[in-house]
Amino acid sequence: MRDEKSTAIVLLSGGMDSALCLALAVKDNYIPATLHLNYGQRTQKKELQAFEKLSNYYNVKERLVVDVNHLSQIGGSSLTDSKINVAENAIEESTINNVPNSYVPFRNANILAIAVSWAEVINAKAIYIGASQVDFSGYPDCKAEFFDAFQNVINTGTKPETNINIITPLINLTKTDIVRDSLKLNVPIEYTWSCYQNDDEACGVCDSCLLRLKGFKEAEFQDKIKYKSS
Amino acid sequence: MRDEKSTAIVLLSGGMDSALCLALAVKDNYIPATLHLNYGQRTQKKELQAFEKLSNYYNVKERLVVDVNHLSQIGGSSLTDSKINVAENAIEESTINNVPNSYVPFRNANILAIAVSWAEVINAKAIYIGASQVDFSGYPDCKAEFFDAFQNVINTGTKPETNINIITPLINLTKTDIVRDSLKLNVPIEYTWSCYQNDDEACGVCDSCLLRLKGFKEAEFQDKIKYKSS
What we know:
The structure is a homodimer of 230-residue chains. Chain A has 230 residues and is α/β, with parallel strands linked by helices. In chain A, 36% of the residues lie in helices and 11% in strands. A 5-stranded parallel beta sheet of chain A has the order 3-2-1-4-5, sandwiched between helices. In chain A, helix 1 links the parallel strand 1 and strand 2 (31-38). Chains A and B meet through strand 3, helix 3, helix 4 and helix 5 of A and strand 3, helix 3, helix 4 and helix 5 of B.
């Protein structure tokens, strides 16, 4: 627990991991400021709703929603390019050398760069990001070494008087750990959205749904959102 | 000189430094692909015109112009925030510990992140950026150590099969060196735009104009663009 209150930016996609990050920033005695990106992902609207509900729940005053058109302009991912299908039941195939087609090229570097720009202006001391390198390690920009390298970019590339730290509290947690910790901290799981498809109910078969369902199963708890296939 | 032709992304703001970078990428036997950012800077229109003229001059086929709203949304710089005046005759005051108010927080990290995302998709091998740490070293994200750190982020955060290198050919050049090299390589200097003010003719008194004029004076050559104060 820290003594003095300072601001932490929380990258809040609206997924379960980012919701836990927000709860942890509050627990760590930071004043949270939430940042959300619309980057042309299929589920943009659902994610933005989740962002607003979660920010309201935690009484977040400072919020920034950024429209990032270039990631969909650039393409190369099933999340931003409607010509590339979202893979089903592909989770087992993902390995460290097999990057899934949902990978948005260098997305986390783009997100962190925006967060750091904002942090410099609002004088935030920390940036919480809910990446995990355990369960689904196919994304190169979700590994500890990537965040360590980015920390060094922040240290060298910002004003000398700033002191901004990337905090990755979930980096070594499994999805099951994340479900358990979210329950312990009373995170409103029912407000979160993880599915890669853009439907009213979660599809239950994309990588993200499969991983979430596995987490809940292993945590022996029933998810609070609805699935098409359930 | 390299043997096989591969693609290099050139960050082409439209200023003199970026124009020289484009000429150097061509000289280095790369196929240039040019990237330009509209980020709400005062001189957005002038810079975009310069980008198009320079890209045409060098027969660039692959071009990407990205609208980045978040830097002006975030603010904190005289270049993107009309409430902050562009400093005049402030060049002498700039030191390593005195960041000028034209500094756009963490801009180069944002630009490089976009360039790397694009490089992954079009399979580019290099990213040319015309930063110099010599003359005007007040910007923290223009130093060699910043680019070295960012290279490490690329190495850790992109697909294993990619091999993308940041190239900073001007990093240790003075503005005078840049003017001389541009003349040697027949860079069409008359197409470039450096001024931070948004007028028909360059103001001649902002940091960027002063530095440019100093470079031409020391290179003993007359600039080919028009200045209000000349």
